[in-house]
Amino acid sequence: xxxxxxxxxxxxxxxxxxxxxxxxxxxxxxxxxxxxxxxxxxxxxxxxxxxxxxxxxxxxxxxxxxxxxxxxxxxxxxxxxxxxxxxxxxxxxxxxxxxxxxxxxxxx
Length: 108
Fold this sequence. Notes:
Blueprint: H1 3-13, E1 18-19, E2 31-32, H2 46-72, H3 74-77, H4 87-100
Parallel strand pairs: 1-2
């Protein structure tokens, strides 16, 4: 199953919101995309600009985490494993990265 199909299926079936960029507009229920600027050149309303700001601020955390993992672990950049089977490898890399950056408490 392609990753796009997995994302589209996760939102309604698992009742999970999916945060996406403008390229996924119209992807379906549960996929949140930013509001586009009107074609006539008018500025967006304040509530739409606020929605876009909140959406970007939440998406940047996921992008930063992914950049940390793929930047640190070359294995994740060059893997050919299926996205459904790579979960354990990513979990292990995440725990090691959190330990390395001292996000995990060190037991006495």
